[in-house]
Every structure is written in C-alpha cells, then in structure tokens.
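Design request, tokens follow.
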C-alpha cells in the first residue's frame, strides 16, 4: 500500500487530504534547485545583469509543464516514464535512459557534495571538507534513508523548499534591487558570452531528470485519475512558483554584484561574501543559509533516484504473499532500496578527492549536460504519449499544455547546442 491514499470519498475532509497530498513535486524541486542552477543564475546576474531575467522567470513554468506531463502519463497508464518509453515508443528506449540516468546521477551527486560541504563550512569554518561531508552523511543516512518514510521525506523537503523561498526573497530586499529596472530584463535577449549561463539555466529546468524522477513520487503518493487537479496545483506551487521565485531571487542578488568589466561570480560562497558590503551581514547569512538548504536537498533527493531507477530497471518485486512491482509498493521501506540509496549517498565521500582533480562545477555540468542530450528525445516521446487519444483517452493533455511543452522542446534543442559548444570551448 502507498503511504498516501488520495480517495477523498474514503478518508478525511477533502481539504485535509488535499494538504496531505501536496509536496510530491517538492522532491523534484529539491533535485532541480541545485548548485548548477544556482551557479548559472549567479553567473548570469553578476556577468550580464538583468538581461537573462526573462529566461530564469520562465524556467519554472517549463519545469512544471514537463513534470506534469510525465505525472499525467503515469497516473493514466500506470507506467513510469521508463516503462512508458519501452511500451509506447520502442523497446529498450526506457532502459537506455534509465542506466544513463543512474551513472550521471551518481556523478552529479559527487559534484554537489563538495558544494554542500563548503556551504556547511561557512557556519563551521574550522571543519575540513572531508569531516563536514562525513557529519552531513551520517545525519542524512540516519534520518532520510534508514529511518525515513516517504511521508516524512516529502514533508522535510517541502519545508526546506519553502524555507529557500523565504530566505532568498528576503535577501533581495537587503541588497536593494531596483524592481522597475528589473522589468527591462523581461524582454527576451541572449547577450554575447552568456552561453554557459544559458546552458545551466535551461538544464536546470528543461531536463530529462524531472520527467524520469517524478513518476515515482506519483506512485509513492498514490495519485489516481481523480487527483490530477491536486497534482496540477502541487506542480504549480513547488515548480511553477517556488522554483521560479528562488531562481529569480538568486539572479537578482547576482545582478547586485554586476559591474562592467568585472569577472562574473562563479559560486554561491563567493556571492555571499560579496553581498556583505552591499546588504550587510544579514544578506550574507540569509544567502549562505539558503544556499546550504539548496545543496543539501540536491545532494539527498537524487540518492533516492538511484534506488527508483534500479528497482524499475531490474523489476524488483515486493516480498510477501501479494507479489507486485516494488515501485508500486512501499519502496522507501524496502531494504534493497535503502542499500542503493545509501550507497549513492556514501559516494559523497568521493567529492573531496574529485575536487583535487577537477572543479566540481565542471563535473556537475558534464553529468547534467549528458542527460540533457537525451532531453529532446524524452520530451518528444512523452509528448507523443500524452497527446495520444488512443493511449490517454479523455486525459490527453490540452492545447495550452502542449504549446508550453513545444516551446520547452525548442529550448531543449538550444540547451543541447549550448552544451556541445561548452564542451568544445572547455576541452578542445
């Protein structure tokens, strides 16, 4: 049985159940609001002022639309994205995406762990990177993997995402942004030299990861066809609104550091220190605390992804008299899932070693960039499934949803081109 059953005719008032159902999209937000997105928006703001505000503001809209498309397919067909790709596109397509996701997921987690340790050291500067990572690993393993149930994990990440919104929005008032000037940034333009920023912003919102990751949240929450309105609001709140607010707030903070001829800010710790002379110590500490929440949630949530994908790809079954696919059961209580998620989390300890060889940001960019090479194909595949009357019946997505996804697809092509150009300029 799922931990949350959403049949409002059977349990509690509809409002109480609606509140309880919210938060599944928060885990997607926890994955997507990562150091890559933070670094890209900071780089965009400090290097190009408000010129890319329009792209950042739209990022949450695309993220919510793509995630909702994947969730709708899962609710109607009962299939995860990996299963739907195998069933309705061509056999083996889901498995290719799944295993690529597993490998790149672990690479990204290792890169993110360094940023998490650095953010922790802002508050405890005497700790080494390794010791900081070890402390956070022990705490996260105990509460989020060994003892964590889906309802607890969902609530925890929801609170963290909400706290990020409050911290980053408060921060922009301390750095005194000119909001009338910010309106000029809503005019679409891509300045020269902003390729890496555009790549990161698009990769943070129009990526294959949320479309592969979210269906497992749908199954864990027990969403049914009658719960699609709740799913829609959940996506709007945590992805369309929260993700966009955080991203826009970070870009606005970065724009406060913009100066002609000055080098763009490369990371959040550098930004926090630079904000202190402008907005005072409150700006520094609010930004630092918000950034720690970002990197911790981004380091934790993908660890569950490894467990989801492997359980799905290898078709793990539940134990007991009623045998069924593990992803359709209480997966977070399964020992195999805990081991896979826990081992991915233990890979955090490799972060300090990797950082001695290559910049963690490069590791994250490459891992997410490889995933984004598959994104246009995943979008096209799910678009075909979600618009098919034969497969979806009356639940086929509407024209506005289709239009939003079509624009997102076009930008996913831009993301692929940007990533390839980034590889050429960095390594060749």
């Amino acid at each position: 049985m799922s931990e949350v059953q959403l049949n409002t005719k059977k349990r509690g008032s509809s409002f109480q159940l609606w509140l309880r159902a919210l938060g599944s999209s928060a885990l997607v937000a926890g994955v997507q609001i990562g150091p890559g997105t933070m670094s890209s928006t900071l780089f965009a703001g400090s290097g190009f002022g408000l010129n890319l505000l329009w792209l950042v503001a739209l990022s949450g809209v695309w993220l919510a639309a793509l995630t909702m498309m994947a969730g709708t397919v899962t609710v109607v067909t009962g299939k995860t994205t990996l299963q739907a790709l195998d069933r309705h596109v061509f056999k083996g397509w889901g498995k290719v995406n799944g295993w690529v996701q597993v490998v790149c997921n672990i690479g990204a987690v290792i890169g993110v762990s360094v940023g998490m340790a650095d953010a922790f050291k802002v508050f405890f500067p005497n700790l080494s990177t390794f010791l900081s990572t070890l402390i956070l690993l022990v705490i996260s393993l105990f509460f989020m993997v060994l003892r964590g149930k889906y309802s607890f994990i969902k609530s925890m990440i929801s609170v963290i995402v909400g706290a990020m919104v409050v911290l980053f929005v408060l921060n922009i008032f301390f750095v005194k942004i000119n909001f009338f000037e910010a309106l000029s940034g809503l005019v679409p333009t891509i300045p020269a030299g902003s390729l890496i920023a555009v790549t990161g912003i698009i990769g943070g919102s129009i990526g294959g990861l949320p479309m592969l990751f979210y269906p497992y949240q749908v199954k864990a929450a027990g969403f049914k066809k009658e719960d699609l309105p709740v799913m829609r609001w959940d996506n709007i709140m945590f992805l369309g609104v929260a993700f966009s607010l955080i991203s826009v707030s970070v870009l606005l903070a970065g724009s406060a550091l913009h100066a002609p001829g000055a080098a763009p800010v490369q990371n959040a710790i550098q930004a926090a220190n630079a904000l202190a002379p402008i907005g005072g110590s409150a700006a520094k500490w609010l930004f630092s605390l918000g950034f720690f929440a970002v990197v911790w949630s981004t380091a934790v949530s993908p660890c569950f992804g490894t467990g989801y994908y492997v359980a799905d790809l290898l078709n793990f079954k539940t134990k007991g008299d009623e045998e069924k696919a593990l992803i359709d059961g209480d997966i977070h209580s399964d020992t195999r899932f805990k081991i896979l998620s826990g081992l991915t989390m233990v890979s955090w300890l490799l972060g300090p070693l990797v950082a001695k060889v290559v910049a963690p940001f490069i590791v994250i960019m490459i891992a997410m960039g490889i995933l984004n090479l598959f994104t246009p194909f995943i979008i096209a595949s799910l678009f075909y499934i979600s618009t098919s009357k034969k497969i979806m019946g009356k639940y086929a997505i509407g024209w506005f949803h289709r239009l939003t996804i079509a624009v997102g697809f076009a930008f996913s092509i831009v993301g692929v081109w940007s990533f390839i150009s980034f590889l050429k300029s960095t390594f060749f």
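Comment from the thread starter after seeing the answer: thanks! The chain has one domain: 14-427.
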